[in-house]
Design a protein that fits this description.
Blueprint: H1 13-18, H2 23-34, H3 38-47, H4 54-70, H5 73-88, E1 91-93, E2 100-102, H6 106-126, H7 133-142, H8 144-150, H9 161-171, H10 179-189, H11 199-204, H12 212-224, H13 228-233, H14 240-262, H15 266-269, H16 272-283
Antiparallel strand pairs: 1-2
Helix pairs in contact: 2-6, 2-12, 4-5, 5-8, 12-14
């Protein structure tokens, strides 16, 4: 009987991409992007504990993503089931209209999903991770399985670079910077964070972000990596020079991060979930 390598496996683009520590920056970029959807950011602001427990929120999200990517099929499906049950009980109020809505509306789930996976892919490739156009398309296609776990019909989820670009084009008229978006972006830019990684993060072997003294540059790079239309919504400029500066910055971060991690013992370089997945793959 073959070992269960989960939803993706060692030959997937997903495993190749998510082995890159620089994806922590993609997660931050995704949050800035997600905050531009008025209902999505209202749902986060009214239901998330990110202000009172930012590290805990970050670690829970990172653990969920790692479980979906590297867990067994059963572990991934169980994580998705828990997430769907949680979302099914939650609602929020649209600050612009006063309308109450469920946070598991497909349009909201789709926006959060696409913003996250596009941010992972864009951050990695801008940092110098080499992917062919076919691999980029394959990553989006593979990630429809993650979207399904979150409660989406995979046939309604963009599954290629061209489809993601068309989706963003169609969504731009719906996006705006609301008060919730401003507050969330401000929190992301200057969060109350410890000077050293939380002990739980170290135990999980996760690279969850830099200490406070370095975070200003990280936040600026995450914003600089946003699409020009998203930067304009935040009041910035969509100049090509910004793209170039952000690309140089993220490449430098990746080089530094990989150099530092290469000098650490393996248990601090590879998370337990990924190590277990690699061990299962070796016996498959």
């Amino acid at each position: 009987m073959s070992a269960d390598v989960g939803l993706f496996g060692p030959d997937s683009v997903t495993w190749k991409l998510h082995a890159e520590p620089i994806l922590f920056l993609g997660g931050i970029r995704a949050l800035y992007l997600q905050a531009l959807h008025p209902r999505a950011v209202a749902a986060i602001a009214q239901n998330s504990g990110y202000r009172t427990d930012p590290m805990g929120r970050l670690l829970r999200t990172a653990t969920y993503v790692s479980t979906v990517i590297y867990g067994t099929t059963e572990e991934a499906e169980r994580a998705g089931s828990r997430l769907r049950r949680l979302h099914s009980r939650l609602s929020a109020v649209d600050s612009r209209t006063g309308e109450q809505f469920r946070i598991d509306e497909p349009d909201l789930l789709r926006w959060v999903h696409v913003a996250e996976i596009e941010s992972f892919l864009t951050t990695a490739t801008r940092a110098g991770v080499s992917l062919t156009p076919e691999e980029a398309d394959a990553y989006y296609a593979e990630q429809t399985r993650s979207a399904e776990l979150a409660g989406l019909d995979p046939s309604t989820v963009p599954a290629s670079v061209a489809e993601v670009e068309a989706y963003y084009e169609s969504m731009q008229p719906e996006l705006a910077l609301t008060r919730d978006g401003i507050d969330t972006a401000a929190f992301l830019t200057v969060p109350p964070m410890p000077d050293f990684f939380h002990n739980r993060a170290v135990r999980l072997g996760m690279t969850v972000g830099p200490p406070r003294w370095a975070y200003t540059g990280v936040a600026a790079t995450a914003i600089g990596l946003l699409p020009p239309w998203a930067r304009r919504l935040y009041g910035g400029l969509g100049w090509p020079a910004t793209d170039l500066t952000a690309a140089l910055s993220v490449r430098g971060m990746r080089l530094l991060l990989n150099t530092v991690l290469s000098r650490l013992p393996q248990q601090y370089r590879v998370s337990p979930l990924r190590r277990a997945a690699l061990d299962r793959a070796a016996t498959a």
